[in-house]
Amino acid sequence: MPPARQQPDPNEILSVTQLSARLKGVMEENFPSVWVAGEISNYSQPQSGHCYFTLKDDGAQLRAVMWRNTAARLKLALHDGIEVVCRGRLDLYPPRGSYQLVVDELQPKGMGALELALRQRRDKLAAEGLFDSARKRRLPTFPRRIGVVTSPTGAAIRDFLQVMHRRWRGVEVLVFPARVQGDGAAEEIVAGIRAANKVQPKIDVLVVTRGGGSLEDLWCFNEEAVVRAIAASKIPTISGIGHEIDVTLADLAADVRALTPSEAAERVVPSAADLNDAIRSLEHRLRTALTTRATHYRHRLDAIASRPSLSRPLEAIHLRGRRLDELALRLRAASQTLLRDRRGAVETMAAKLETLSPLGVLGRGYSLTFREGESKLITSAEKLKPGQRLVTRFQQGAVVSVVDHVEREND
């Protein structure tokens, strides 16, 4: 026979709300603080600022919530797929009858939260080109006005000024006070950088510096606002943050990185002693070069001066004058000889002309007859007619006659 059915005691019957309340009390009593490791999935952050996600491993999953005030203190960005370690308390959520972990502290598994946040932020800003070497500017060689963003009471400014004044004088330094550690430090550093960019006359170089410290101490120089302010500065910027092993995102964004505040001073101004040594070296090299060149040209000048044309300048003139006299004599003799030859030729030609000249014929008793008013010589009587007037030319003088009659040879 089946066992008799037991009737519940009305006083022991619990409502769902009552049972949930008891379970909630048991959880809060037995798990006030617990560390849980797992992978984040189903991550969301609505406008309320609260973070909701699920922690899971290969065998189970657990809902988790992080309230807004806790999430605001996180240095890293949460997303699906990262493994984290959370500290919190278990809580029962009555409306759904499910329990969840209320997270009070969260850090990445195997890596500190700051290291992970630094890596994430560096990758993000590098993708935007804020650390590109192409945008780096050269520092001026001889700055006259230097701005320094740092704590006015820290050791960094003392070291910076001490080294700078030891190396170079006559530089105006403007300090823009800012906290370099703790809450509000990033905002003050950004304000100092922006104020330096507004100063007139303009600042030649801007230095952002502080002494060394832990990653937490230097965290303000990893803040995105500080990095963007340095990248946006119109003034060439040098960072001198921490010690040699400390590297911040501000160092990567600056035009020049110095390992320490003291090195920042060494990078920003030249060394007067080194510059004087360089000037003396250049002076020596210049003097040597000028002496060598002067000696070279002196030797060339001596060689030129030793030439006869310069050592005895009139001798060449005398030689040319003597040569000119000889040529003049030769020219005179040649011209006289040529003149005699030409005169003899002319006389010979004149004699020949004289022999052939009609005037010469007249000299031997002959005469020339022309019709009056004509120049053509009459060689035949047959061309004449009675009554024509004739002109007869003798060696001396001429006569005019009239043809009376013409006698022909056959008459």
Automatic annotation (TrEMBL):
GO terms for cellular component: cytoplasm; exodeoxyribonuclease VII complex. Residues 14-106 form the OB-fold nucleic acid binding domain. One of its GO terms (biological process) is DNA catabolic process. It catalyses: Exonucleolytic cleavage in either 5'- to 3'- or 3'- to 5'-direction to yield nucleoside 5'-phosphates. It holds the Pfam family tRNA_anti_2. Its main location: cytoplasm. Residues 130-349 form the Exonuclease VII large subunit C-terminal domain. GO terms for molecular function: exodeoxyribonuclease VII activity; nucleic acid binding. Heterooligomer composed of large and small subunits. Belongs to the XseA family. This is Exodeoxyribonuclease 7 large subunit. It comes from Lacipirellula parvula.
